[in-house]
């Protein structure tokens, strides 16, 4: 990636709340690119992440809605029991297709569709988790020319997902949570 990205996608599972609380709340309200987040949440419950992060973040935080444009200054969380996708025109789409890696929403679904839509103007971040969802999606981002960042497995609450992502994308930047936050700030200085 040589220019400022058009979007950032983040995937996390077990340990996600604690990891995201170290990355998202201190981003400035003027952060100019959209952040799309998939966290594995049980399908039989409402996604409480929006309320939690809306109270702690300077950015607008909302649940992604069908056919809305992905706008800067906003963090979009995938709704419970729906895959979050990005259309070619940069609008968001929701799907109730079959779970992927036993998850709906699935990280791979978001990352692969975002790579198709934004190509090299995309940064993908894999955080803590106990499975391998996101590894194939992060590879799709790399193959499209985008940037790949993985939480350092040594500091991740659950290292399985970061390890799978690094196995799939050995050239990904391996960063601690504080460094991921700094990386997100540096992205918009380009």
UniProtKB/TrEMBL annotation:
<feature type="active site">
    <location>
        <position position="133"/>
    </location>
</feature>
<feature type="active site">
    <location>
        <position position="13"/>
    </location>
</feature>
<dbReference type="InterPro" id="IPR000673">
    <property type="entry name" value="Sig_transdc_resp-reg_Me-estase"/>
</dbReference>
<dbReference type="GO" id="GO:0006935">
    <property type="term" value="P:chemotaxis"/>
</dbReference>
<dbReference type="Pfam" id="PF01339">
    <property type="entry name" value="CheB_methylest"/>
</dbReference>
<feature type="active site">
    <location>
        <position position="40"/>
    </location>
</feature>
<dbReference type="GO" id="GO:0000156">
    <property type="term" value="F:phosphorelay response regulator activity"/>
</dbReference>
<keyword id="KW-0145">Chemotaxis</keyword>
<feature type="domain" description="CheB-type methylesterase">
    <location>
        <begin position="1"/>
        <end position="190"/>
    </location>
</feature>
<dbReference type="GO" id="GO:0005737">
    <property type="term" value="C:cytoplasm"/>
</dbReference>
<dbReference type="GO" id="GO:0008984">
    <property type="term" value="F:protein-glutamate methylesterase activity"/>
</dbReference>
<protein>
    <recommendedName>
        <fullName>protein-glutamate methylesterase</fullName>
        <ecNumber>3.1.1.61</ecNumber>
    </recommendedName>
</protein>
<keyword id="KW-0378">Hydrolase</keyword>
<dbReference type="InterPro" id="IPR035909">
    <property type="entry name" value="CheB_C"/>
</dbReference>
